[in-house]
Amino acid sequence: MKDELLSLPGVGKRRAGMGMKMSQRNALTQVQTLVIKVGTAVVTREDGRLALARLGALVESIRTLSSQGRRIVLVSSGSIGLGGSYLGIDRPVAASDCPAAAAAGQSLLMEKYRQLFGHLDMRCAQVLVTEDDFADSARQANIAATLQRLLALDTIPIVNENDAVTSAIKIEDKKGVFYDNDRLAGLTAEAIGAEALVILSNVDALYTGPPQEPASEQISVYEPNMRVQFGQSSHLGRGGMQSKLRAAVRSAQAGVSVVIASGLRPEALQRVVQGEDEGTFFPAR
């Protein structure tokens, strides 16, 4: 895949707008309802097995946030990669095999989340959705009501697309309301009126170019009129940084503050909600 150039309003270098925008990051310390999205490259290892240490650290962080009175919704990728490994399917999983891999992997993923949350005396619940659920106002209202009720019952909702029935179409056509879980996370945040969305990735922030290139600069705050060069997406998931940027732009325009940060560093999530200069911040418009 060739590198792509994307120009979107609001992208700037780390040194641009720092003084003014850092005060806006402080608002994250007051967030009461937070959506956290974790990608396949965070949830699983290169061999397709669960990254247990990272999952455990994530669950511990969610417990800490919950103990502070915050309401957390988790949007978790990983079912296709995990199911493909379980079924002995070669990676990357072919589109025709994705529904079967998702069917096997979703139950395995939820079983592990249930165990990890259970060790901390917490509950979780699975919510599977399709793009039709967000295209229909009545279904979207039902999703929001279900999530709000679970939160009221001190239960962590874990949201994922129902890939067992939609993934083959998504991967072949690469289109729809949400082709990847980055956009799904944004739609979920909007539906429940969350103040913030944190997208945890295997890259620690948005850069002006591919992170491995010496000339690429890490972007601290979303600033206008910058061009960002993208390299190849991870073979582990459907998204990539371009997907994350588009989702962050849309969510910020809808009034949800967004941070793209590392899911490989356990302290990153805590630093985000403490208003620290962690990852790339997109202030709500």
Question: What would you say this structure looks like, in words?
Answer:
The protein is α/β, with parallel strands linked by helices and 285 residues long. The protein has a single domain, classed as 3-Layer(aba) Sandwich (Carbamate kinase). Helix content is 43%, strand content 18%. It is built from 11 helices and 9 strands. It has helices at residues 18-25, 40-43, 52-67, 79-87, 98-119, 131-135, 137-152, 163-173, 181-192, 241-253, 267-273, and strands at residues 4-8, 33-38, 71-76, 123-129, 155-161, 196-201, 226-230, 257-262, 280-282. The strands form 2 sheets. Strands 4-5-3-2-6-8-9 form a 7-stranded mixed sheet, with helices on both faces. A two-stranded antiparallel ribbon has the order 1-7. Helix 4 crosses helix 5 (98-119), helix 5 (98-119) packs across helix 8 (163-173) and helix 9 packs parallel to helix 10. Mean pLDDT is 85; it is low at 1-20 and 171-177.
Short description:
This protein is an alpha/beta fold. It contains eleven helices and nine strands.
**Secondary-structure content class:** alpha/beta
Radius of gyration: 18 Å
For this structure, the quaternary state is single chain
Helical percentage:
40-55%
* Number of structural domains: 1
CATH fold naming: Carbamate kinase
Low-confidence stretches: 1-20, 171-177
Shape: globular
CATH architecture descriptor text: 3-Layer(aba) Sandwich
Order of strands across the main sheet = 4-5-3-2-6-8-9
Tally of individual helices: 11
Proportion of strand residues: 15-25%
Query: What profile does the largest beta sheet have?
Result: 7 strands, mixed
Q: Terminal Cα separation, in Å?
A: 33 Å
